UniProtKB/TrEMBL annotation:
Belongs to the ABC transporter superfamily. The lineage of its organism: Bacteria, Bacillati, Actinomycetota, Actinomycetes, Micromonosporales. It is an enzyme of class 7 (translocase). Residues 7-241 form the ABC transporter domain. SMART domains: AAA. Its main location: membrane. It is a peripheral membrane protein. The keyword ATP-binding applies. This is ABC-type polar-amino-acid transporter. It catalyses: a polar amino acid(out) + ATP + H2O = a polar amino acid(in) + ADP + phosphate + H(+).
Length: 250
């Protein structure tokens, strides 16, 4: 990498109830890069994303955003999160707010964007994903795929430096997965910096600049998806991908 990374995780450790989940993990994400985390459930993918967004505190090591150590306890976590967009597998939309209000909430309340400008930007983004006509609806009136697209738009509305996506298709019916993956592929083409945890190997192959295989809280192997997913060098990666093949998911 020729420039400082947008995100740098340095020797990050995290333990839950005495059980290590992240073991001195190191990872850099460059500007405009899409890094996809793969691995079995419990390998540390979601925990890493939650640590980056300061939803979990690290036990050791450091996480830097644009060279600034955000894991320093003197930092205001909410101010850090204002620079990071996170999309969860369960959407996490506010059920009592309309689609438009969900999307404009952070720009208006956190970033102090004028309400009219926030509304204009929100409608523009919703139109891009084919949901401008649903701006006045409440989330429970939308399909799962529509709700997840709204959640992604909400993350984009504040123009974050980094977007984290945590298994964003796992709660969707198979026929709805494609519309969400298509939106993420479009964001990649636009140069959005993303760190993604997924079980969708075909998606990882399509959008990743780099795939990282996590096992036991460590990055065991990483590289271009064409190599890691087709010709992995590590036995643990090969075993994981073989199970994926047997399950018909690769």
């Amino acid at each position: 990498m020729t420039a400082d990374p947008v995100l740098s995780c340095q020797a990050v450790r995290k333990t839950f109830h005495g059980r290590p989940v992240l073991h001195g993990l190191d990872l850099d994400v460059a500007e405009h890069e899409v890094v996809v985390l793969i691995g079995a459930s419990g390998s540390g993918k979601s925990t890493l994303l939650r640590c980056v967004n300061l939803l979990e505190t690290v036990d050791d090591g450091a996480i830097l955003l644009d060279g600034e150590e955000i894991t320093d306890p003197r930092h205001d976590a909410d101010r850090v999160r204002a620079r990071i967009g996170m999309v969860f597998q369960s959407y996490n939309l506010f059920p009592h707010l309309t689609v438009l209000d969900n999307v404009t909430l952070a720009p208006v309340r956190v970033h102090r964007v004028h309400k009219a400008e926030a509304r204009r930007r929100a409608l523009e983004l919703l139109d891009r994903v084919g949901l401008a006509d649903r701006a006045g609806e409440y989330p429970d009136r939308l399909s799962g795929g529509q709700q997840q697209r709204v959640a992604i738009v909400r993350a984009l509305a504040s123009s974050p430096r980094l977007i984290l996506l945590d298994e964003v298709t796992s709660a969707l019916d198979p026929e709805l997965v494609g519309e969400v993956l298509a939106l993420i592929a479009e964001l990649k083409r636009e140069g959005t910096t993303m760190l993604i945890a997924t079980h969708e190997m075909g998606f990882a192959r399509q959008v990743a600049d780099r795939v990282c295989f996590l096992d036991g809280g460590r990055i065991v192997e990483q590289g271009p998806p064409s190599r890691v997913l087709s010709e992995p060098s590590q036995p643990r990666t090969r075993q994981f991908l073989q199970r994926i093949v047997e399950a018909g998911r690769l």
